Amino acid sequence: xTASAPAPVPEPDEAAGAPHFLSPERGLGRLLHAVGPVLAxxxxxxxTLTLLVALWVVGAATGSLTGGPSxxxxxxxxxxxxxxxxxHWWSPLSSLGWASGLGGYLGTTLVLLLxxxxxxxxxxxxxxxxxxxxxxxxxxxxGTGLIALGSEARETWxxxxxxxxxxxxxxxxxxxxxxxxxxxxxxxxxxxRLLITVVPLVLALYVGHAQQVMHVxxxxxxxxxxxxxxxxxxxxxxxxSSNTEGRVLVALAVAAFAIGxxxxxxxxxxxxxxxxxxxLIFSSGPDRETIDLYCASSAQECHLxxxxxxxxxxxxxxxxxxxxxxxxxxxxxxxxGLRAAWRITIVVLAGWLALMAFLAVDVSTDPDQYSVQPxxxxxxxxxxVEQMALVMLVLLLMVLTRVLFALRLPGRAVRSLAAVVLGTxxxxxxxxxxxxxxxxxxxEPTVTFPDLLANLPAAFLPPDYDGLFWxxxxxxxxxxxxLYEYVGLCFWAITLVALFLxxxxxxxxxxxxxxxxxxxxxxxxxxSTLSYLTTWPGNHYWFDDTGSAAVAYxxxxxxxxxxxxxxxxxAARGDAVDGFAxxxxxxxxxxxxxxxxxAVKSRADALGWKAVQVAEDTVVPLAGLxxxxxxxxxxxxxxxxAKKQGITAEWCTFPDAxxxxxxxxxxxxxxxxxxxxxPEMGFTLGGLDELDDPHVRCLLAVDKDRTVHGITSWMxxxxxxxxxxxxxxxxxxxxxxxxxxxxxxxxxxALGFQEEGAAFLSLSGAPLARKDTADPPIPLxxxxxxxxxxxxxxxxxxxxxxxxAKFQPxxxxxxxxxxxxxALPNITRAIGKAYLPxxxxxxxxxxxxxxxx
Length: 853
Prior knowledge:
- There is one protein chain.
- 57% of the residues lie in helices and 11% in strands.
- It is α+β, with helices and mostly antiparallel strands.
- Strand 6 and strand 7 form a beta hairpin.
- The chain is globular.
- The two termini are 48 Å apart.
């Protein structure tokens, strides 16, 4: 039922005039076709191209491409404390023209193409050039000032940098990117800011070269310039990210913590304050001096250090990056919001914290075993404490964002993962002990079974940690060396792959057997228009004795809050109300049926329960639907305008949509969430997590350039195993897109579903909004009406209900039914917790102020 624009037909000269080797299906043509979209902005950015050419031409002319400027040239054009002290006032600007070596030139080229070219397209060449020059001068001056202040404070790292001049060509470019971020949408604003903040900061803290400190200065200057240039705009206010984007930000923080030590290990002269942690997380083999030192001690020590050298000269050297690799895999699980990844990350970080605390105590009590001179004991302990502070910050971040990671892996996936990890561990242990005993004479000295057993934990750690275990047997024979090198590597390789595949598998919404059983029941018999919400994560399920009806619920503050009506066999749904009430009574819970239809209200009335209307379902019958007559004028106008502007309605499912479309959907959603200034609501209102479902259909408004202007999602309502109706859930529009996108999409969906034979289309219910009636409201109803009015500027529920009136729907009230008015305070808190599970205290105060005003 996809309505999309036809594929463009190539012009005759395009089809016939291209050389054969440049065909998009062949070698060079395929490469150019792939990189073309990436390089397209740069082709239209003359400032970027001019700087790029000048950088490489000047570097080649001065012989600086491979090793950077010569010492003599660096003294004339470099920037730093010495240069400014000598009166080289031009050095902040002259340092823009050179990089520190081939890696610096390649890195600067990448930064130019990725950051400056898009900025030039958006901000213009003149404005970009002004910010570039200003950011370069002010950023290098700020970086130099930070180095000078640190040197005066006797900070070892910065004191060392105070004697050096450097080049920093990316400083101004990062300032331009920071200013550009103020003009982007919420999603890309946050991503660009994260990129230009985290990367320079990680490099400065771990690698610690002078140019990286100046890059941080450029970012800070850029943010300040952006704040001045965009003062008074909404971009200056801190905005909450959506739950999905929040997980991404936490995952990137953990990934940065994992990658930082690896970066420090790649630099032989890493100076950053956190460079020491690379020796703990990213292990490396012994150098020549260490080998000589060990061999001068004893024959056994000499055998041990040569075994370590061979370890890092074999594929087993990958074990040196074990912790970094594990944290990167866990970051992928955190990005997906998995509670299992959160728990494992907490364990790993706590383990490293305990290790560094142990080392700090051990160094202070016995520095000789670490070859630490008495004068170096205090600096070494201070360095370890600094590393502990970093780990504690990441650990604190994980604890504070715990609520973002509530998605649980399916039971089958957990059992499979446990079987693979434990099975591999048992096989590895058996191989290490069994084969080790068979070749016990290949160790120095000959080992016994207790020796191997005591050393078993060391087999799964890099050899740098052998010092944590006493009486370590030293492998000298080939088989013993193979055990030493590959037992741990095989275990961790299989474990990391198993973890990654488990995290990467499409998330199964049937979290357990009950959820799977509930989905089968829903598909077979159906329920109300909102019954598909029962498949969302976070629900528990109650089944009647015959298994023919079920209730989805979640417990908050001893209140069992249902998600819509009971579902299943229509004949059993009424009795399910009574049965669920008895079940709650046995558990000491107060039942509260939320967003239920008049049928459930009627059954609850018979039990003597209370009821209040909380929403208004809007249902559009599809039989005979035609957008004719004056009352459909707005809808026809939207359809006609979309046609004139080349906008079409395109069906897809979010998991199977092309990456470009999914990224646009995320961006539109993030902009919508950020503009609210309050947390994203859940419970009966779906977000990106609920959109990621192969059974939920998405309808996109897409123009001829493949730009998404709006999106709606539709959940099925089943009967006898087939969808008979569809319910609107996710609805977002691009802020600067086609203004009639929502009318166009809903009308297109209605016509499409009508063609498929569906009976109805539900535009769903807007919470705290209802159609006016002649009946006088009860006091609680008046209170809810007041809350809906107060929240209107924030969430717009009443405006949404008025918007849906354009489609001439039938109105069906939805109720909250409850047994006792005395339980209302608890029920109110439970509903608030269900809708806003991630609301922070600050957001709660902001919401309270809006309510009171």
